[in-house]
Specification:
single chain; 188 residues; mainly alpha; Rna Polymerase Sigma Factor, Chain: A; Arc Repressor Mutant, subunit A; 2 domains; 3-stranded antiparallel β-sheet; two-stranded antiparallel ribbon; 5 strands; 12% strand
Length: 188
């Protein structure tokens, strides 16, 4: 049985990493991050006394937070985003604003679980293709191909919500290229 002292100890140890996980995925939308973290802890309070504390509390908390984020972004229709706010290239994911983060998360909520997990591991968890390959028991080349297909599928979902001053031109290599209305090209 989980005592109050044990729960408080877990809370103090895990709240920081949990908040970091959530805030990275919501692009600085502090109220949303705080709501998700709070809802996650409320689920822990409701579940752990009955079912017992999980062997890996952080993993349990992150899975619950992930599911809450997916549910949140599935319910919301994203707003138009300026392509300058959205950077999803081969090596990094830079979401400049909460609206860009919301758009990417909305798109990821529409991908298969496998593709979303792959993009999340690469972009948000900063895992290399080698690390992902080892985890999944695949070759690095297979992971690169899966990442490319996942990016392409994500781009298909995001295309209608990239603001009207840009159109999606093509996918070159593994980076989506946007052509702005003034003729400039931008990686997104």
């Amino acid at each position: 049985m989980l005592t109050e002292v044990e729960f408080v100890e877990i809370y103090r140890r895990e709240t920081g990493p949990l908040y970091t996980y959530v805030s990275q995925r919501v692009g600085g939308d502090r109220p949303l991050a705080e709501d998700v973290v709070q809802d996650t802890w409320l689920r822990a309070v409701g579940s752990w006394p009955r079912r017992g504390t999980p062997d890996r509390p952080r993993a349990w908390l992150i899975r619950v937070a992930h599911n809450l984020l997916v549910s949140h972004f599935r319910r919301r229709r994203p707003q138009l985003v300026d392509p300058a706010e959205l950077e999803l290239t081969e090596g990094r994911c830079n979401l400049e604003t909460p609206s860009a983060a919301a758009l990417v998360n909305w798109g990821m909520a529409r991908l298969s679980r496998r593709q979303a997990a792959l993009l999340e591991a690469f972009y948000f968890d900063d895992q290399s293709t080698r690390e992902i390959a080892q985890t999944l028991g695949l070759s690095e080349r297979a992971v690169e191909g899966r990442l490319r297909r996942a990016r392409q599928n994500l781009e298909k979902h995001l295309r209608p919500f990239v603001s009207s001053n840009a159109t999606v031109d093509s996918v070159q290599g593994s980076a989506t290229v946007l052509e702005l209305s003034d003729g400039r090209r931008k990686n997104a």
